[in-house]
Design goal:
It is a single chain. This protein is mostly helical. It folds into two domains: 2-163, no CATH class; 164-204, no CATH class. 75% of the residues lie in helices and 0% in strands. The chain is built from eight helices and no strands. It has helices at 2-36, 45-67, 75-79, 82-117, 129-132, 134-155, 166-177, 186-200. The longest helix is centred in the middle third of the chain and has 36 residues, at 82-117. It starts with a helix and ends with a helix.
Amino acid sequence: MFSFLNKFVGFINQSIAVLGITAGVALSFVNVVARYVFDASLTWATELTIFLFVWSAFFGAAYCFKKDAHIAIDIVLELVPSQIAKIMLLISHVITLIFLSAISYFGYQYLQLVIELEEMSIDLGIPMWIPYLVIPIAFFLAAYRVAEKIVHIIKTPHNEVLGESEVEMIIASMGVAGENKFKKSPEELDEMVKETNKKTGGML
C-alpha cells in the first residue's frame, strides 16, 4: 500500500511539474509570436502562464524533497560524530515537517476564505480558489515526503545516515567520465572534497 502511495505521489508531483512548465513555456511562445507576428495578443495568456509556472514550481519543489535535491549546508554534519549528525538531521526534518504542514493547513483555511468571498481572476475569469489550490495540496505532498524521510532516517544506522555529498558525487562522475585524465588516489579525492566544502561553505 505504501509502495503504491509513494509511486502515486511521485507521479502527481512529476506530472504537474512537467506539464506546468511545458504548457507555460509553450503558451508564452505562442503569445510572443501572436504579438510580434500577427499584431495580436492573448489577453489571458500572461495570467495563465503565471498560474502554470507557480503550480510547476510548487509541485517540483515537493518532488525535490524525495530526491534530497533542495540546497542543504551539510558541512556542520560532517564535522560532528555520526550519532549527533543523525539527531540534528531528525530535528531539521521535524521542523521542516511542522512548517510544511502549517502552510498546508493555513493554505486550506485561506482557500475557504477565497471561496467564501467568490474572488475571481482578472483575465481568465475563473474562481481564484482553483490556482490557490496548489498551496494546500503541494505543501501537503511535500510534508508527506519529509515524513517519509524522517522514517528513513530513524531506520538508517547513524554511520550511514549522511551518505554521499554532492561534491563526492560530482567528483565520482568526473572520475568515471574522464578516467584517463582524472586519476586520483582515495586520499587526494578526500582532500579535494574537504577543500571544496571549505571554499563553498558546504553549499555545493
